[in-house]
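Molecular record:
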Amino acid sequence: MDTVQTSSLRANAYFDEPTYLAEGYIILSPDTPISVELVNRLKLWDFNTIFSDGKLQEAPTSAAYEAETEGSTITAVLDRDLKEKKKSEISKKFYFTVLSYITDQFKIFRQSNKLDMVGINQKVKDIIQMVKENKDFLLSLQDFNYPQDNYLPAHCLNTTLLSLAIGEVLKLPPFKMIELGLAALLHDIGMVKIPEILYLNAKQLSPQEQKMVKAHTVLGYKILKSLSLTEEIPLAALQHHERMNGTGYPQNLRGDKISLYSKIIALTCSYEAMVTHRAYREGRDAHTALLELIKSSRTLYDESVIRVLIYCISLYPLGSLVRLSTNAVAKVTKANPGNPKFPVVRIVFDEKGNKVSEYVIVQTSAEKGITIQKSLSGEEIAALG
């Protein structure tokens, strides 16, 4: 493929073969006139070269209007794609920066029993702000690949992201959002003092080992209580394994006896654990995990909290891959609070199974006849290639 300097492009000229911004990213179809707007945008974006196997031809003057119209559409799509890509990159960078910080804090605590609560408090404030600005990207948990042996810090961070998204929908005041963030980030602090082999290993735990793992709730409560935090924060560490029907631990509490933060973290902690890949098992697909939680509403989890989680991530959670009624494969990119069954998706593979390089966004809708048939399993995703 030939490299073309953008400085050589002329308005209303065209290539007789597809033109690419980068590999797999078509910006001009064959015989589509180049618009003035496209030339200016390429300069603005600092793209000095584009690529094509075609030859640059002069278009007739009558094509000028069509070129401008086509160019406006192309640049609008490119603008949106670049903005989305930038948000995605910012979100991932932020995620792994915070994950590294939490990992370090847990290591320090394991060795010295010290937690930098000033720094952790600031990190929670940063997370709250990022959830407000980039929620759709941060809640696409399946997009973040972290080392399997870094499970505990990542689990706590992912639980925090989901919990704060719920807190935002519930319109919790700022100080309660900080409390919820701290409670979620530190809800498993008691696990830091338990041998990692007990929760990273696939082997069946003995009754004594199970007892040790379950003790992390009481241990976490004592640790956080000693830091003079507001009572709601250590209480969440104590109660996040309690269940609405009284079958949880350590106190077999029921319904209203469980604090709000604990109800939120009980749900987000469980959902995160279900969808996460572990060294000894594949994570469930997000849709299946959510359906299992819905079935458990009223018995295990607070029904109103489940409704808010669905509101945040849709019935087909953000980042999950789905097959549409058109047979195309798409990635869920935005929840639809008005109807969680019909989120916004981005086409990844067309109906013939060809990978789509263009940024094609679709609002699923029964009226449009574009609906989600199913969420793809891990095996089906792997088969896509």
Q: What stands out?
A: The chain has 13 helices and eleven strands.
